[in-house]
């Protein structure tokens, strides 16, 4: 009987791969193609990462530092500790600006969300025309400054076509942007007009993910459109709606350009939103340290609101199986 003696076959390829890896300098299990893909990915990511570091991370860290200093561009920053924050807490204009901003956000988010949701449902249930979606998005393609100027001319008390129509109907002219009562609601509705189409398309995209089988089964059971909306559409749209709300709330708290070109914070500080007050403190009175402290406070407020919204709306979970 002959007994064949040989080395285990599994050791030969292993040793060969290890030797090849040591010769080429490539870690075992990682091919040259994978390394090339990683380098290509890093090349594409580099511009965005550089922009993030230069235009977001560094200004944020610099602003946090300046919030603890007295700085006016003409002299070196002087460390003052918490003085700017103490001043902010005792500043009645700051609290008034914060309240005006909250009022604006409440009107803007309330009207925009309801209108965008209605438009999105109508786009899904009645028509899915690409042309109609383009028309809905048209105001969003206009900058906030241009939109503000256009509506400033339309709503001008003496010469605006809007007030000309109101006057032609036998109603007294309304000082939309010159009256303390009308100013903030008017600015909020101007921004609703500009952003509602974009918000509606975001919600429309969320509606596209809901299976049509659910609506067909509900119709077979005799459910009305209104009942299907509350029992099917709203629960399944919740994650998308939550993300849209988070985005719109953050954007609304940062309103500035529409106020700057229409009312400049007036009349009598009725539209002096927080961002405009920060801008005036920094570039009008050169109090960059105090303006940075208010910016940090706004960052903290927005972070807290975002976390609260995310948890209350359960934005990270979906009811779709």
Fold topology:
Elements: H1 11-24, H2 32-66, E1 69-70, E2 78-79, H3 83-89, H4 92-125, H5 130-137, H6 144-154, H7 161-168, H8 183-208, H9 212-220, H10 225-253, H11 257-262, H12 274-284, H13 288-313
Antiparallel strand pairs: 1-2
Helix pairs in contact: 2-13, 3-13, 4-8, 4-10, 6-8, 8-10, 10-13, 12-13
How much of the polypeptide forms β-strand, as a percent range?
under 5%
Number of helices: 13
Rg to the nearest angstrom? 29 Å
How would you describe the shape?
A: globular
DSSP summary, beta strand count = 2
Keywords: Cell membrane, Membrane, Transmembrane, Transmembrane helix, Transport
Family: Belongs to the binding-protein-dependent transport system permease family.
Main location: membrane
InterPro entries: ABC_transporter_permease, MetI-like, MetI-like_sf
């Amino acid at each position: 009987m002959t007994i064949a003696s040989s080395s285990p076959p599994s050791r030969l390829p292993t040793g060969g791969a290890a030797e090849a890896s040591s010769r080429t300098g490539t870690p075992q299990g990682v091919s040259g193609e994978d390394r090339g893909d990683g380098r290509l990915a890093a090349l594409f990511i580099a511009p965005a990462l550089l922009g993030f570091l230069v235009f977001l991370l560094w200004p944020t860290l610099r602003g946090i530092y300046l919030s603890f200093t007295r700085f006016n561009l003409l002299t070196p920053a002087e460390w003052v500790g918490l003085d700017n924050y103490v001043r902010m807490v005792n500043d009645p204009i700051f609290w008034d600006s914060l309240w005006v901003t909250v009022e604006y956000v409440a009107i803007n988010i309330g009207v925009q969300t309801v209108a965008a949701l209605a438009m999105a449902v109508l786009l899904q249930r009645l028509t899915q025309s690409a042309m109609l979606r383009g028309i809905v998005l048209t105001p969003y393609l206009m900058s906030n400054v241009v939109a503000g100027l256009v509506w400033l001319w339309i709503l001008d008390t003496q010469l605006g076509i809007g007030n000309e129509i109101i006057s032609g109907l036998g109603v007294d002219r309304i000082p939309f942007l010159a009256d303390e009562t009308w100013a903030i609601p008017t600015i909020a509705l101007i921004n609703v007009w500009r952003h509602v189409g974009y918000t509606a398309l975001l919600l429309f995209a969320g509606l596209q993910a809901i299976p049509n089988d659910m609506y067909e089964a509900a119709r077979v059971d005799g459910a009305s459109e209104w009942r299907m909306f509350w029992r099917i559409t709203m629960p399944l749209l919740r994650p998308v709606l939550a993300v849209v709300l988070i985005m719109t709330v953050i954007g609304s708290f940062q309103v500035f350009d529409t106020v700057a070109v229409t009312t400049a914070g007036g009349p009598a500080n009725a539209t002096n939103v927080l961002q405009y007050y920060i801008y005036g403190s920094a570039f009008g009175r050169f109090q960059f340290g105090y303006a940075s402290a208010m910016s940090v406070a706004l960052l903290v407020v927005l972070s807290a609101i975002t976390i609260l919204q995310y948890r209350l709306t359960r934005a990270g979970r979906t009811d779709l199986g």
